[in-house]
Amino acid sequence: MGKGRVEAFTDGVVAIIITIMVLELKVPHGEDLSALVPLWPVFLSYVLSFINVGIYWNNLHNMFHTVQRVDGRVLWANLNLLFWLSLMPATTAFMGENHFAPVPVAVYGADLALCAIGFNILTSALHRLHGGDSAFARALGSDRKGKISLAFYLAAIPLTFVSQWIGVAIYVMVATVWLVPDTRFARVVEK
Fold it and tell me: Which residues span the membrane (predicted)?
């Protein structure tokens, strides 16, 4: 089957996720800058999650440009990833509202790790469908960056109980690495 409906559905779900996250931001009570101070954990959590959701959307967009079709496995794998992404508003609010306490930071990290696992499942399903000689497989390569990111997320979860700031720093570091545009898929599409 064609990939257009999967792309449109994914775009819609991502838009809803971001909308739900922004609706969690509360208007400060007060008219001076001091009214913003109590909201910094919630806002910082939102920024981090917006970036993470945006990274997944960007990678999915680029990735689906290199494939020609999808099948049932790909549909379910995509739904699996979207499920974990759809929890991002809840884990974001949990972390922000609790001022980066260890348990909420660890739960947020678990959600990030499950998103990364979901992305790996999706890439495996697409690889199986299109084969090792496809444009998709060439663009994906060994996906070293994705595997390393997952390892960092998994390491961050227990490290959060040493200091929640270690976990937050790792999440920020991984997001920063992914902010550098990933040109693997763009290079294949251009050829």
Answer: 12-29, 35-55, 75-95, 107-129, 150-180
pTM: 0.92
Could you list the mean pLDDT of each consecutive 10-residue stretch along the chain, which spans 191 residues? 90 96 87 86 95 95 89 96 98 96 98 98 94 86 92 98 98 93 69 64
